[in-house]
Amino acid sequence: MTTEIKIAPKNSLLFVMDKDYGESEIPESMDGKRIVATRSCIVVGTLCEVDGETYVMLTDNKIRVQEISGLQKVFSGILATPQKEVNLYTVHLEPILTLSVSNTESHVEIWANHKTEPDKLCVLVIPSPI
User: Fold this and answer.
1) Would you state the CATH architecture of domain 2-127?
2) pLDDT tier, 32 (very low <50, low <70, confident <90, very high otherwise)
3) 3-state secondary structure 25-43
4) Tell me: the pLDDT tens digits for 2-29?
5) Which of 1, 54, 110, 124 has the fewest beta carbons under 10 Å from its own?
6) Is the dihedral of CA 130, 59, 47, 20 positive or negative?
7) Domain ranges of the chain
């Protein structure tokens, strides 16, 4: 399944996390990095909100990610998904996109088209075997 949106998120950040669970471990600071993560939350920087919208895709289909030119993998890790969902939220914890998964842990890759301010982001979710 693939969902997508164009958005200029507040503070130029998006949170990738499981519904309700990720709030308990949101990273406190970006420490000058574009992506920071805990076991339950990945925070991703986007194009500066005043510079325009960022295209964001949430998918479990690697082929869809490969169809977008100029993307490079910038993150790979395991995300706890006890509610069996991966959600994208704003910094105000407003839901943007949702993807159901089959396991309580999911391998997540973040793909972007720029090192510091991407205007194209893909969140690829690969269910982890349990």
Assistant:
1) Sandwich (2.60)
2) confident
3) HCCCCCCCCCEEECCCEEE
4) 999 999 999 999 999 997 765 668 887 7
5) 1
6) negative
7) 2-127
Structure tokens at 116: 């510091």
Helices marked H in 32-105 — which ranges?
62-66
User: Torsions phi, psi of 63, nearest 5?
Assistant: -60, -40
Nearest to 128 by CA among 108, 107, 98: 107
* Mean pLDDT of the 74-101 span: 94
How far apart are alpha carbons 6 and 9 in whole angstroms?
Answer: 9
pLDDT at position 31, please? 81
Amino acid identity of 11?
A: N
Query: What pTM did the predictor assign?
Result: 0.90
Three-state secondary structure of the chain: CEEEEEECCHHHEEEEECCCCHHHHCCCCCCCCCEEECCCEEEEECCCHHHCCEEEEEECCHHHHHCCCCCEEEEEEEEECCCCEEEEECCCCCEEEEEECCCCEEEEEEEECCCCCCCEEEEEEEECCC
Residue listed under structure tokens 């089959």: 102
